[in-house]
Amino acid sequence: MASIPWDYMDLVKLLIAVALGFAIGWEREIHHRPAGLKTITFVTLASTLFMELSMKLSGLGIGPPGSDPTRLAAAVITGIGFLGAGVIFQAGGQLQGITTAATIWLMTGVGLAVGAGYYVPALATCFLILVGFSALPVIERAIARRAQTPPPGNPPTPPSQQR
Predict the structure, then answer these.
(1) Which partner from 14, 89, 113, 120 sits 20 to 30 angstroms from 144, CA to CA?
(2) Is position 92 within any domain?
(3) Does any domain span residue 107?
């Protein structure tokens, strides 16, 4: 059986995926999050590879006539949903791991974008993820402080009178 033709751009895409996955994974790793360097890098790399394969196989006419390369991408997104769901758990009455699951899902999208050759949107998404990891906690804390501060002119309600 003949091998699927490839070129050096296929390898470049994989290296870009590793670099982007590494950047986001490193951020998660230094903050001691459940899905860190290896997980995020591997998810990004795998989704890039799946998109490359999907596009190559479709271009070669392998599969049913008129097959759509986005079908494999859709299957990757569905499958990664199960991985993301596996990191969400309940502890002490609160859900944990939702940001980790969202990061896994986003990095799957980044990998698919790289595999399809959409480098600028993939890079921009990683930049926005890093900005979000830095800026959103500050905004969340400000909102929480504001929610705990009574409006000016209204004294706080004592806990015994709260319903």
Answers:
(1) 89
(2) yes
(3) yes
